[in-house]
Design goal:
Elements lengths: L19 H5 L15 E7 L5 E7 L1 H4 L4 E5 L21 E2 L9 E2 L5 E7 L2 H8 L3 E6 L14 E2 L11 H7 L2 E9 L11 E6 L5 E5 L4 H12 L5 E4 L16 H12 L3 E4 L14 E9 L5 E13 L2 E2 L16 E11 L12 H19 L3 H7 L4 E2 L4 E2 L5 H12 L11 E3 L2 E13 L5 E7 L5 E4 L9 H13 L6 E4 L16 H26 L13 E4 L2 E4 L6 E3 H8 L2 E7 L11 E13 L5 E11 L6 H20 L5 E2 L4 E2 L15 E8 L23 H13 L10 H4 L1
Parallel strand pairs: 1-13, 11-12, 15-17, 23-24, 30-33
Antiparallel strand pairs: 1-6, 2-5, 2-7, 3-6, 4-16, 8-17, 9-14, 10-11, 10-13, 14-15, 18-19, 20-21, 21-29, 22-23, 22-28, 25-26, 26-27, 29-30, 31-32
Helix pairs in contact: 5-6, 7-8, 7-14, 10-11, 13-14
Bound molecules: dioxothiomolybdenum(VI) ion (MOS).
């Protein structure tokens, strides 16, 4: 089954992005850029209160503005499904999904309460400002820390406790009890969410939406509006998403409502402020207790995470499970709780759960290294887990030792003086910190179709997405390798709900899921090509099977007689286009193993003692993720993750006014993300890791692992520089001075 890479195989090559020319020339069009004569524009009006009811909406002034076509509210919206199930999607949290414009209830500040539709977007926005909305306001409750006693167990499974945790903690020579805090963070992709709904003459809808899953959005619209079989969703280009496009966002149903009511095509694009009115990374309190022998050997570990959620859904992610699998430890107890607040439901954000959990765990490990008086890297090696103790399984592969060794070597870790405040450069204190990262190697069911056109071009399609990750490029490489064609003869199509079924693009699972399906579809197509070739009279292939032929340089040839070959293009010139569709799902052999990517990240910071400013001058991130299909796009994934990890450590925080229950810094001026000047040298190493269990390709995915552990490494480097522990993100200068 495996397509082994040869010297000329496109697999493993640093191919430039195949969609690059379209993007840099502006020909790649995004959801809010599709035009149509007579297209109408909707502007969303959001609630200024966080909890209560709408008493009345007076829209007369807005409706009187020339060019305004509709003011849509809960009072005049089209019919919507009445059952909760209809509003669920592939990334739903447990509970009752929000129903847009369903009734007069206000559940969070920023909830959409009306859509004003006009001939142009500025007019719609202006008219929206004329709405007179009266509310019955109730005091909101938005503070996680004030609601801790209301925390309930998060739904979903946690690893069973093991050993005698309390006894081991009591008996430990070294004992640490530590609390870590992390704030709300919002996704801020360059492209805000937008939907353009084309109302076709026969009443069907063709929707350009910003999403990580076209079929997820298609099913959502069909169910909510009772439009089975009448909706197509397209999303060929996405300007970043990071998880924000995993669920259908409210601009989609609002645009559909307006299109249905008016029988016209409508676009709704969110403003940057409105990007702060839906999912986000939840604020958390994490409590970790470590018990260890004097030499740092772990004896007991507890990790409790308490996160915020909405009143209507219990959002869960894997925050604490990593703490039971990353290090060898006989006595472990994990706990995960949620506090419902008057806020919207959190949402997966890059490395959901792991980015938070590993921040706390890896900071605590650094504190343990200090307490035991041993090097932080040595502490990790001393407690290295050869098996996943959560599930008592071996790893399918785990090249984490190599990550530690190669990362440390490249960084120069062995020259690190153990004492904090012992490195200086001019006015600045210099510190070195490190951390481990882990993410699961998922595989979801997926399918793909491969078609060899009469001109010899291979067109492969699957309804996945490319959110900037490089899906177009790596799928082109996988298909080219599987068919023995040069990459410039291969075209990959995605982002269309009519294509073969694909999962959401998320969880770092696209190469493993869709890539495997692409490879299988090409294998099925090879069989079809052989079948056709065998039909021609006196075919040299008549008596052979697929195992006797190979596909190289656009030709099919006999393995035993390489000079006996036929050009693939020649076969389809005779037969016409040939196509094959195939599906792939996780192989049963995976069940006996733990499957995960790992990383070791090393960070240098320079801290100005007088000003408290922190510069991350150098990062080395060593990654073990199985086979890397494209080292160029994969490196970009890791660099992006590291940049975000630096933002998580030092910059990002959505601040809420708990009196109003409302985010205050909902713009890119006051919500800080790292800019170029904040980023120093970032070096990425992919260590070799062969894995024959994880999937046919041996690839584990690289989308999330880059961010995991980075914030802990930065925090630990700051401690090494300054001697100060800051256990609350982001580490801003006020906390350092
Ligand atoms: Mo990612 S948070 O799985 O889009």
């Amino acid at each position: 089954m495996n397509t082994l890479p040869s010297a000329t195989s496109p697999l493993g090559q640093p191919l430039d992005r195949v969609d690059g020319p379209l993007k840099v020339t502006g020909r790649a069009r995004y959801a809010g850029e599709f035009q149509e004569p007579g297209l109408l524009h909707g502007s969303v009006v959001t609630s200024r209160i966080a909890r209560g009811r709408i008493l009345a909406i007076d829209s007369r002034a807005a409706e009187a503005v020339p060019g305004v076509r509709l003011v849509l509210t809960h009072e005049n919206r089209p019919p919507l499904a009445g059952y909760d199930k209809a509003y669920e999607d592939q990334d739903s949290a447990e509970g009752r999904a929000y129903r847009p414009l369903f009734n007069d209830r206000i559940l969070w500040s920023g909830q959409p309460v009306a859509l004003v539709v006009a001939d142009d977007p500025e007019l719609a926005r202006y008219a929206g400002s004329l709405l007179q909305i009266r509310y019955a306001e109730e005091a909101p409750d938005t503070d996680l820390m004030a609601g801790l006693e209301r925390a309930h167990a998060a739904p979903g499974e946690l690893p069973e406790p093991r050993g005698d945790v309390d006894g081991a903690l009591r008996g430990a020579v070294l004992r640490l009890d530590l609390d870590y805090l992390s704030p709300v963070e919002h996704h801020n992709p360059l492209e805000p969410h937008a939907s353009t709904v084309h109302y076709l003459p026969d009443g069907r809808l063709e929707i350009h939406d910003k999403t990580q899953g076209v079929q997820n959005c298609q099913q959502y619209v069909e169910k909510v509006f009772g439009l089975e079989g009448r909706v197509r969703v397209l999303s060929p280009f996405v300007g970043g998403a990071f998880g924000s496009g995993l669920r259908p966002q409210y601009q989609l149903p609002l645009a559909v409502m307006a299109a249905l009511r008016l029988g016209r095509s409508v676009r709704v694009a969110l403003t940057r402020q409105q990007m702060f009115t839906f999912g986000y990374r939840p604020r958390t309190l994490q409590r970790i207790s470590l018990g260890a022998a004097a030499d740092g050997q772990l004896q007991a570990l507890t990790h409790q995470a308490i996160g915020q959620t909405s009143r209507f859904e219990d959002f869960t992610e894997h925050v604490v499970k990593w703490s039971g699998m990353l290090y060898q430890c006989p006595n472990v107890r994990l706990d995960y709780r949620l506090v419902p607040l008057d806020v919207f439901t959190p949402l997966d954000m890059r490395a959901p759960g792991a980015a938070l959990g590993l921040y706390a765990l890896e900071c605590a490990m650094d504190e343990l290294a200090c307490a035991a008086g041993i090097d932080p890297l040595q502490l990790r090696l001393k407690n290295y887990a050869e098996r996943d103790q959560n599930e008592d399984k071996p790893f399918s592969s785990k090249a984490l030792r190599e990550c530690y060794a190669q990362g440390a070597e490249r960084f120069g870790w062995s020259r690190r003086p153990p004492q904090p405040r012992s490195l200086r450069e001019g006015d600045r204190l210099v510190g070195w910190g490190m951390a481990t990262g882990i993410w699961e190697a998922l595989q979801m069911p997926a399918s793909a179709k491969a078609c060899l056109e009469p001109d010899g071009r291979l067109v492969v399609g699957s309804a996945t997405a490319d959110i900037g990750t490089g899906t177009y490029t790596v799928m082109t490489q996988i298909a080219a390798a599987a068919m023995g064609l040069p990459v410039d003869r291969v075209e990959f199509r995605l982002g269309d709900s009519r294509l073969s079924r694909a999962p959401l693009e998320g969880g770092s699972a696209t190469v493993s899921s869709v890539g495997t399906a692409v490879q299988r579809a090409c294998e099925a197509l090879r069989q079809r090509l052989l079948d056709v070739a065998q039909q021609s009279p006196a075919s040299p292939f008549s008596a052979v099977g697929l195992e006797d032929v190979e596909f190289i340089d656009g030709r099919m040839r006999l393995k035993d007689a390489p000079h006996t070959s036929v050009e693939l293009a020649q076969i389809v010139q005779v037969s016409g286009a040939l196509e094959a569709e195939a599906s792939a799902r996780a192989d049963g052999k995976r069940k006996a193993y733990a499957l995960a990517t790992h990383s070791a990240v090393f960070v240098e910071v320079k801290v100005d003692e007088a000003l408290g400013t922190v510069e991350v001058s150098r990062v080395v991130s060593a990654i073990a993720a199985g086979r890397i299909v494209n080292p160029k796009t994969a490196t970009s994934q890791i660099v992006g993750g590291v940049v975000w990890g630096i933002g998580m450590a030092l910059h990002e925080e959505t601040l809420i006014d708990h009196h109003l229950g409302r985010y205050m810094n909902h713009n890119l001026a006051e919500y800080h993300v790292p800019v170029n000047a904040d980023i120093g040298e970032i070096e990425v190493i992919f260590v070799e890791e062969r894995d024959e269990i994880v999937n046919d390709l041996g690839s584990k995915g690289v989308g999330e692992i880059g961010i995991v552990g980075v914030a802990a490494a930065v925090a630990s480097a700051i401690h090494h520089a300054t001697g100060k522990r800051v256990r609350e993100l982001p580490i801003t200068l006020d906390k350092l001075l």
